Amino acid sequence: MTQAVRSGLLAVLCSAGVAFAQAPAPPPAVPASAASKTLEFKDQKGKAVGTVLLVDTPHGLLLRGSLTGLLPGTHAIHFHEIGQCEPPFKSSGGHFNPSKKEHGMMDPAGMHAGDLPNLVIPKNGKLDFELFAIGLTLADGPNTVLDADGTALVIHARADDYKSQPAGDAGDRIACAVIAR
Fold first, then answer.
1. What is the model's pTM?
2. Hey, what domains does the chain have and what are their CATH numbers?
3. How confident is the model at residue 65 (pLDDT cuts 50, 70, 90)?
4. Which of 97, 115, 129, 144 would you call most buried, defined as having the most Cβ atoms within 10 angstroms of its Cβ?
5. pLDDT band at 4, cuts 50/70/90?
6. How would you class 21 by CB atoms within 10 Å of its CB: exposed for 0-12, middle for 13-18, buried for 19 or more?
7. pLDDT recorded at residue 168
8. How far is CA 119 from CA 36, 54, 71, in A?
9. Which pLDDT score, from 0 to 100, does residue 16 have?
10. Under a CB-based contact definition with an 8 Å cutoff, are residues 138 and 60 in contact?
11. How far apart are CA 6 and CA 164, in angstroms?
12. Residues 74, 133: contact at Cβ < 8 Å?
């Protein structure tokens, strides 16, 4: 990986709110006027493994999550096109992609609206995180995650390489949360 690519990837991760060096500060309160939705992640055995709060902002969706019990390591997380989470979570369809772009923030023809930076789960299996999904919304419109069949937020077994088609070579789907009205 070239230095320019590494610098670009670091900029994307930093702008997405991913922090690795220190414990996160308590998040600011969600304004009472902001639309929000709380989701529960379940693994393939139906066990709850975390929650995520989606907060609508003027520029996209802020995701504030907490995970526990997943294997340590780097894991992809994506919005998927259908709000279903029947194991092995293939029922959630492909990545949420209303603009019909290629996959990956490293692909000049990408990225899917559902592409997000990887999560890095520490050895203790517990992770608090914040991510930002540019352009997505809980409100009506072409980039809503609350369309007729909903969407899903899916965590994968491996890291997203940010370029392989159609899903970043991220492996099996290990946890899923339904986003529905």
1. 0.80
2. 3-21+34-179 (2.60.40.200)
3. very high
4. 115
5. very low
6. exposed
7. 62
8. 22, 16, 11
9. 44
10. no
11. 17
12. no
Strands (E), the chain: 36-43, 48-57, 60-67, 73-75, 77-80, 119-121, 127-134, 151-156, 173-179
pLDDT category, 29, cuts 50, 70, 90?
low
Dist CA 135 CA 178 (whole Å) = 19
> Pairing between strand 151-156 and 173-179?
antiparallel
pLDDT in tens, 71-126: 999 999 999 999 999 999 999 998 888 888 867 777 777 777 788 999 999 999 99
Q: What is the DSSP letter of 10?
A: H
Alpha-carbon gap, residue 136 to 133, rounded angstroms: 6
Q: Please name the amino acid found at residue 79.
A: F
DSSP 116: -
